[in-house]
Amino acid sequence: DQSAPGQELLAEFYRSRGRRGDAVAAMEAGLKLEPNNVALNRSLMKVLVTGEASDDRARGRELLAKLQAQSPDDPDLMRVEAGLLLDERAADAVARAREKLERVVELNPSDAASYLLLVSLARRERDFDRARSLASRALSTNPTNLALQIARIAIEVDLGANRVARELGQRVLDERGSDLALANQLTDIFRRAGDSESAGVFAERALAVAPDDEYANLARAAALAGKGEIKAAIEHLNAYTQKDAGARSVAAHVA
Predict the structure, then answer these.
(1) Model confidence over 189-219: pLDDT tens digits?
(2) What does the alpha-carbon distance between residue 45 and residue 59 come to, in Å, rounded to a whole number?
(3) CA 101 vs CA 89, 119, 122, 186, 228: distances in Å
(4) Closest Cα to residue 60, out of 20, 93, 91?
(5) Mean pLDDT, to the nearest integer, of 184-193?
(6) Distance (Å, rounded) from C-alpha 231 to C-alpha 221?
(7) How far apart are the first and last CA of the chain?
(8) Residue 207 and residue 178: Cα distance in Å, rounded?
(9) 68 and 77 in contact (C-beta within 8 Å)?
(10) What is the DSSP code (8-state) at residue 190?
(11) Chain centroid to CA 223: how far?
(12) Number of continuous H segments (helices) and E segments (strands) in the chain
């Protein structure tokens, strides 16, 4: 299909398969047919600004500036610019990125991605109260967003409110049912914080879903050891290594 929409679909097909060069070529072909096609210009800009070649990135930034001149208060374009500023890592660039992101969530309170970036910035600066406030605001408009829910749990741990964090984690797991990856992720949050009690709770939840999962078994043993229950930890590892899955686990044998 030699129409601009056809080239856009072709570009998306190539992008989904990791064929970035072909995707760019398809978008450029579409723009020759319709130079002012907004969707194609935006798609091309997003591919170029994340490219490996400096020429592509520079061209992408030029295209971003052109699009912003046409739509100065566009939240999507501001989020892209904020991401580029954060990549620069300079203090003034971070401040400008934060300003952009705050404007984005003001214009679009449902923009979970921008809220997550703001939360990440606040946590990086160890402003955990602000991070909690941002996460709460974000969840008020995105109540089922898993990344935001996990961020809120991690922030409560940052603040030392582990009991609250554990209750939130239990609630999220209850809502999502048998989610092994989530249970293991929550286990890891508490394990890294040195909360063996809570880590053990979520390791048990993971094992209820997948009794042979390597990470969950090792995490449960570590949680038991962290609580001083060395004998129980050894017994758990021994039982696990008697299973086929455990017998193949190098980590379980050297733990």
Answers:
(1) 999 999 999 999 999 999 999 999 999 999 9
(2) 8
(3) 15, 11, 12, 27, 45
(4) 20
(5) 97
(6) 10
(7) 59
(8) 10
(9) yes
(10) H
(11) 26
(12) 16, 0
pLDDT at 92 over 80: yes
Amino acid sitting at position 230:
I
Amino acid identity of residue 37, one-letter, is: N
Please report, as a single letter, which amino acid is at residue 158: D
Give the pLDDT of residue 254: 45
Contact yes or no for 233/225 (Cβ under 8 A):
yes
Q: How far apart are CA 128 and CA 122, in angstroms?
A: 7
Q: What's the token pair of residue 84?
A: 């580029």
User: Is the pLDDT at 78 greater than 80, yes or no?
Assistant: yes
Tokens of 129: 């109260």
- The pair of structure tokens assigned to 29 is 């072909």
Q: What is d(CA 144, CA 93) in angstroms, rounded to the nearest whole number?
A: 31
Cα–Cα nearest to 207, from 167, 244, 178: 178
Confidence of residue 51 (pLDDT cuts 50, 70, 90): confident
CA distance 122 to 35: 40
